[in-house]
Design goal:
With 143 residues, chain A is of the alpha+beta class. Chain A has helices spanning 89-104, 109-132; strands at 3-8, 13-19, 21-26, 29-33, 40-53, 56-70, 73-78, 81-83. Chain B has helices at residues 2-51, 53-63, 93-107, 121-129, 148-163, 214-285; strands spanning 77-83, 114-119, 136-138, 167-179, 182-191, 209-210. The longest helix of chain B has 72 residues, at 214-285. The chains are: A alpha+beta (143), B alpha/beta (294). At the A-B interface, β5, β6 and β7 of A face α1, β6 and α6 of B. β5 of chain A pairs parallel with β6 of chain B, so a sheet runs across the interface.
């Protein structure tokens, strides 16, 4: 008997289907959900949600939200969520580089927070993208 | 001859406008359908959000945290935000919502200051014209749907002001979509948020483990509820605006097609008459035809 997983954002229903296990980025740390898990409510952090269905592994970038576990039903209400195929690796890489460069300059606290959040978002996107396809980070051209 | 030239010129002008009308009609149709689809997705999200409350509320009530009464204070500011459109070509869409807002403003008790705000340049302009300049206004996208981010930013700001007793209430006035080309202005109280927990589904036993502070989860749900509530109203307004624009553009496109058809026939008729006259002239010149009986 598997788990029904629903990943919903305010803008769309990203995924709904049967899976065997779910690993989510809880605000208190990673949480693994198996069938027959006790009912649970938690806040989600920025991170990668991984679901296993047989030999298949599904990865989603989750940018905050909540999770409710009912009897064999996991509902993820994400603020923003993306599938690996939707992630533009070059754009995420560019965002990561921009955020890192900004952080090196030691900006004021507000900008620093924004840059940290942007860095975290881009890293999560890159991690999800890497799981689904071969990923090669950009290198400086050799002279 | 002069008439024919004028008709040709008009025909060319109408033909030049035809693709623009067609494009606007297609864009409006796409945006209208997208707004309805998005609103339906949002409802599914909101329903699930409310579904989290039944298991959460007993814990909060035990902690005495939920439904904390606000201490009596002098009335703070009330915010009234009018949602209009950024572009015209949607009939009385903006006039209707602004007229309704004017009536609503008059009906409000004088207690506490009021802040009038507007989303959409057209509505802001009409409010200024009617002597009620908004304290602030923000534009809406012209071709795409309102961004979710905008709803989150506004809701977050108002909730913080509400918590700080700077704002007592936030009312949103928008055109509620009632079907293709039909809408009616209405007012919705966004803040203070009124969350009605969805009936509990499934087994309530054992009680859920609530990771993180339940109050933190509740606060986030309230914020999310206010933001998605506002986003829903923006989408509803967008559906009303775009469906009205679609109806107008559809009418204009059909009218243009009819005009083009009529004018093309008029041009062809005038051209036939001109050819007949020229042939008559040639025949008379060649002596093929002459006065009757000669």
């Amino acid at each position: 008997m598997g788990l029904r997983l629903d990943i919903v954002t305010p803008e769309r229903e990203l995924f709904t289907g049967e899976v065997d296990t779910v690993l989510v980025p809880g605000a208190e740390g990673q949480l693994g959900i198996l069938p027959q898990h006790a009912p649970l409510i938690t806040v989600l952090d920025e991170g990668v949600l991984t679901a296993r269905r047989g030999a298949e592994s599904l990865a989603f970038a989750i940018h905050g939200g909540y999770m409710q576990v009912l009897s064999d039903h996991v509902i993820v209400l994400a603020d923003v969520a993306e599938q690996a195929e939707e992630i533009d690796v070059e754009r995420a890489e560019e965002a990561r580089r921009r955020a890192e460069e900004l952080l090196k300059k030691q900006p004021p606290p507000e900008e620093q927070r924004a840059a940290m959040a942007a860095l975290q978002r881009s890293l999560v996107r890159l991690r999800v993208a890497r799981r689904q396809r071969p990923y090669r980070p950009e290198r400086e051209p050799e002279s | 001859m002069e008439d024919l030239e004028r008709v040709r010129e008009r025909l060319d002008n109408i033909r030049a406008v035809e693709p623009i009308l067609g494009a606007l009609r297609t864009i409006s149709l796409g945006s209208w359908q997208a707004a309805l689809r998005q609103a339906s997705n949002l409802r599914r999200y909101s329903d699930r959000l409310l579904g989290m409350l039944p298991p959460l509320l007993p814990t909060l009530q035990a902690q005495g945290a939920a439904q904390r009464p606000r201490r009596a204070r002098p009335p703070a500011q009330r915010v009234i935000m009018v949602v209009g459109s950024e572009r015209g070509l949607c009939g009385r869409f903006n006039e209707a919502v602004v007229e309704y807002a004017m009536g609503y403003l008059v009906s409000q008790p004088a207690a506490g200051p009021l802040e009038l705000a507007a989303l959409g340049s057209r509505a802001a302009r009409l409010l200024r014209r009617d002597g009620h300049p908004p304290a602030w206004s923000a534009p809406l996208p012209t071709t795409s749907l309102p961004p979710l981010q905008l709803a989150f930013e506004l809701a977050r700001r108002w909730l913080m002001q509400y918590e700080a007793h700077e704002v007592d209430a936030v009312d949103i006035i928008h055109n509620h979509y009632q079907g293709p080309g039909r809408y009616a202005p209405q007012v919705t109280r966004l803040i203070p948020p009124r969350l009605e927990a969805a009936p509990a589904t499934g087994a309530a036993w054992p009680p859920p483990i609530i990771e993180t502070d339940p109050l933190r989860i509740y606060a986030r749900i309230v914020e999310q509820w206010a933001a998605t509530g506002l986003y829903g109203l923006l989408l509803d307004s967008a559906a009303a605006e775009q469906s009205t624009r679609y109806q107008i553009m559809d009418g204009a496109t059909k009218n243009t097609e009819r005009l083009v058809e009529e004018m093309t026939m008029a041009v062809q008729d005038a051209r036939r008459q001109e050819i007949t006259r020229e042939m008559q002239g040639l025949a008379v010149g060649a002596g093929l035809v002459g006065p009757r009986g000669s």
